[in-house]
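cron nightly-structures :: item 1 of 1
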Amino acid sequence: MRKFFLTLVVALLAWPSLMAEQRSELYGQRASLFDMLGTDSTDIVFLGNSLIHGGNWAELLGNPNVVNRGINGDTADGINDRLESVLRGRPAKIFLICGANDVSHDLEADSIATAVIGLADRITAESPSTKLYVMSLLPINNSFNRYRRLAGKEQVIRDTNTALESLCAARGLTWINLYPSFADADGNLRTDLTNDGLHLLGPGYAIWTEIVKPYVEE
């Protein structure tokens, strides 16, 4: 019995490391692909986490110049580590969304906003010809009980958006506030747009497309 207990403890302690390794493998696969593909001056890049990863943006927007550079589970640090592969081609536009996974890592709103705006500052410094659009974090819905690390973090998301909007205004960056179009009367992600409280169903991507299409086409 004691041996079984010790084995169980070791397994439980190792579980987060195994999950991190799995995420790292996905990150490595996607980042390697994106590095090989690169970008060019006609590209319109959608850059971010699983919400970007999950969208077929070129098809949604009817524009073959739109490229997907999203990685499931990515954070501001992760995007920063692979940003060179996006910027070296001096793409025409970048649509950036980031922060939900940083929230799940228990960071405060100001820290998350600072990290995201750091990405924006790097983009504008290293590729000044690129038009940058910073998109807000989306609401979440914890009634699905799927993402425990996001439980009770609704206000952190709202505070991050408030801070980001202010930082974008100070820099003259285009801010796209997606949040209101996805939130119900209580500020949660609408249940008709998700099946897990975080990620989007098709109708959610349809709303997102309608919001960003004028910016893509301008």
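cron nightly-structures :: done
The mean pLDDT is 90.
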